[in-house]
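Example for tutorial group B:
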């Protein structure tokens, strides 16, 4: 897969649609083989490849750095968790799995209430290409949950007086991610994995025809 031809928008869409439950890569692999890219084109391709391949490691590292800065402030740790959830809701797989588990739990408690948590049925128009399915969480559009959790986390950051600290921690986490993705040499496993993901995407588009 030629990552040089992948745009930033394509990478964001791929990170949003990819399976969120994939386990992080081993530390022995994550912290090995660092080299300087030979050109700006090599750096651009390496950065996109590593961001996609080590996505779970980077997410855990950023959340860890955010939580590390607030060990003495439990309220700020809750804010960090809410911020992580609001970001995770942007992933289609996580949003669908979260909604399914909540609905399943509510079905055991109250079947009538669980029926209200189902997403609305999208009309099917014959003869027209199917539009991209909107993501719902517990019967509500995804943006509602993102807005609620992000607003709650912002309020907790403000109440805990740690907003400036979280900005520094977030900046440090993003900088560490950028440096690692820039100097970590993509291994053969990463290249094979991206080829496999590309094949799955092509096959999924072919199956939808």
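The residue assignment follows.
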């Amino acid at each position: 897969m030629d990552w040089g031809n992948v745009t930033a928008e394509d990478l964001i869409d791929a990170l949003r649609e990819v399976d969120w439950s994939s386990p992080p890569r081993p530390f022995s692999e994550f912290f090995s083989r660092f080299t300087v890219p030979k050109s700006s084109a090599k750096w651009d391709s390496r950065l996109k490849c590593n961001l996609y391949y080590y996505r779970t490691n980077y997410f855990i590292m950023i959340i860890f750095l955010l939580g590390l800065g607030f060990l003495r402030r439990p309220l700020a740790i809750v804010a960090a968790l809410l911020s992580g959830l609001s970001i995770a809701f942007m992933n289609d797989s996580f949003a669908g799995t979260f909604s399914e588990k909540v609905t399943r739990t509510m079905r055991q408690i109250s079947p009538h209430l669980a029926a209200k948590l189902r997403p609305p049925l999208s009309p099917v128009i014959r003869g027209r290409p199917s539009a991209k399915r909107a993501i719902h969480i517990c019967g509500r559009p995804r943006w509602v949950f993102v807005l609620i959790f992000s607003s709650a986390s912002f309020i907790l950051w403000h109440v805990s007086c740690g907003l400036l600290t979280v900005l520094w921690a977030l900046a440090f986490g993003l900088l560490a991610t950028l440096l690692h993705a820039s100097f970590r040499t993509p291994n053969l496993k990463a290249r094979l994995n991206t080829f496999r993901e590309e094949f799955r995407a092509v096959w999924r588009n072919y199956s939808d025809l």
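The chain has ten helices and two strands. Compare this with the pattern of hydrophobic and polar residues in the output above.
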